Amino acid sequence: MADIVQQRLEDRIPALEQLERVGLFTNKEVKSMLKRSTALEYKLHRTVQSKDDVITYIQYEINVLELIKKRRARIGYHFKREEIEYPIIHRINHVFRRATTKWQEDVQLWLSQVAFNKKWGTKTQLSKVLSSMLAIHPDKPALWIMAAKCEMEDRNSSESARHLFLRALRFHPENKKVYQEYFRMELMHAEKLRKQQQELEQAKIDVGEYNFSPEILSGKLAEVVYRDAAQKIKGAEFILSLLQIAAIFDFTKELQDTILQELQSQYVDDCMMWDFMAKRELDAAGAPELQSAKGRASDTDRREERCCVVYEEALKSLNTEAMWTCYVTFCLERYKRKTNVNELKEKRKERLLRVLQSAHDAELLQESFYKNWHLVKMVLQIAITATQCFSQSFEMWSFSLQTLVQLESTEAGHLFQEALKHVNPKVESLPLWQLQADWCMTSQRPEDTETFFQKGLLSLVPAVSSAMKEKYLEWSYKTGGYKRARKTFTSLHEHRPFTKAFFMKMIEIEKEQETPKMSNLRDYYERALREFGCLDEDLWMDYIKEELGRHGNPENCGKLHWRAVKTLEGESVERFTTQYTLLQTGHV
Q: Confidence class of residue 378 from pLDDT cuts 50, 70 and 90?
């Protein structure tokens, strides 16, 4: 073993000498790297190999590559890559090959090697890794799709991607996702050729005898894929998914028409086909661009009526619960769309009520829609009356308040106050406070919302008080930006009780800024750990990852690890140790 290790260390020396010679590393750093490499090599060549040792070795080598990249950018030196980076990349791939040979079933190892080769641009090696991975794991469709995409996007090889999809279909002849991605790939290939042809024509370049095939340019290969898929996989939903993919490309009108015709002829008894055909009327060419709101509303109403005509036609031959569900869902979605034109709002309401009544009369109305029917039939009076009759029922208060909020009723504010008087404050009041907070944030004046939050913060129920802090911080950021959010956080961060989400929200706000301050992030994490650090290992891990990030200081990670192990209690220590180890080995 010693001879092998010595040979591998000697193989490193030319690259290390180059690193020192060109000024990327100092002599002291090179010696330190050689010492660290020696220890890793001995671990790697032990009789009983450990996967963790292999991962640690690979991660160290990748870190060296990243550091070289940063040093090159800093001093502006971009030469001798063949003598410096290439041996390291070759060494990493060699270790990856040994690992994937020994632990073939570990898909994550394979994916790590694929990701490594994609990042460092070793396209030939990437293709070899993909082939080896698929030979071991041919039963996983997602890997075939990923490999084909790599060939198409990273190696720019449509032919290789096509071969991979065809091989995938031998193992998975009825897999919808494989067919969908194969179909998409052929359309992307046609689009790429069309762009190439256009660029050549614009540049007036003579390509000699080479001609672009009109069939390929028009998407005929994709049509072949579609026909094969349609024979093996039945169902309007799948055919519609292919149609939606084709619609992304602007040269597929003929293909879309073909798919649409076959969809209509073969799936007359499928409610999804009728649902799609009805909704197409919304996008059908209509009147020219109208300026007035009433004109646009009138045009929208005509389109929606045409949709209803299609649904009614469908119900003549397909009078089923599923078909009625599609029809009611469409009417309900249109009813919920906001409009400032009262005439359109009323027509949508009348249409929804009519369809609900018809479905009910046919005894094919889905159970869940009865609640929606209730919503649109004078719900204001019904909701208020219901809460008077069942004033101690939390479910009734909750349902009635949600109803009034959805309908934007002015009675909601008064009803919220009444609800809080009747429900059990310690057990049932929190959902009502949260609902009222959402309502105030979206529908009330800023001063009224501020008053509500101040009242919520003073609640004697800890769950309510802590939840309102989180909502108040969120609202402050939305209405007043970062400065107001900081001010709100500062005014609240000493007033218990808290939720973890309160601190995480402030961390999220800080990270959304153009130049987040690490000192502020540390303050937020420290305050959160003061409250939840004994049992929440995820909080410690988030803090450590922050220090490893662009704005952090990796040297602090060791101290945080030591503090976490000392602070956490019970099983949290073991879970933290596991997560930290995975982070160190690059698995997280």
A: very low
| DSSP structure string for 284-343 | S--SSPP-SHHHHHHHHHHHHHHHHHHHHHHHHH--SHHHHHHHHHHHHHHHHS--S-HH
DSSP 427: T
Residue with tokens 């490193």: 12
Of 395, 396, 464, nearest to 436 by C-alpha is: 464
Residue 256 pLDDT greater than 60, yes or no = yes
CA angle 363-395-361, nearest 5°?
A: 10
Q: For residues 511 and 521, is the Cβ–Cβ distance under 8 A?
A: yes
Distances from the Cα of 252 to the Cα of 184, 260, 284, angstroms: 12, 12, 17
DSSP alpha helix (H) spans, 407-517: 412-422, 429-443, 446-457, 462-492, 500-511
pLDDT tens-digit map of 525-574: 999 998 888 888 889 999 888 888 888 888 888 888 899 888 888 888 88
Q: What gap in Å lies between CA 456 and CA 469, rounded to an integer?
A: 8
Pick from 521, 528, 524: nearest CA to 567? 528
- Is residue 246 within 8 Å of residue 256, measured between CB atoms? yes
Please list, in sequence order, all residues whose beta carbon lies within 8 angstroms of the beta carbon of residue 227, skipping any fewer than 6 positions away.
none
| Distance in angstroms (rounded) separating the CA atoms of residues 588 and 586 | 6
- Give 496's DSSP letter: S
- Please give the residue that has the higher pLDDT: either 77 or 384: 77
List of residues 6+ apart from 69 with CB closer than 8 A: none
Q: In whole angstroms, give the CA distance from residue 588 to residue 572.
A: 18
CB atoms within 10 A of CB 446: 12
CA triple 48-51-55, angle to 5 deg: 130
% residues pLDDT > 70 (the chain): 91
Distance between CA atoms of residues 53 and 44, nearest Å: 6
- Secondary structure element (H or E) that encloses residue 374, with its range: helix 369-376
Closest CA to 340 of 283, 408, 435, 401: 408
Note if the pTM is more than 0.70: no
Q: What is the C-alpha radius of gyration for the chain, rounded to an integer number of angstroms?
A: 32
Are 222 and 190 in contact by the 8 Å Cβ rule? The answer is yes
Residue 489: closest CA among 503, 479, 499 = 503
Alpha helices in 139-292 (DSSP H): 141-149, 158-171, 176-203, 214-217, 220-232, 236-247, 253-266, 271-283
Q: Which amino acid is at 163?
A: H
Q: Tell me which amino acid residue 560 is.
A: L
Sign of the dihedral through C-alpha 22, 26, 30, 33: negative
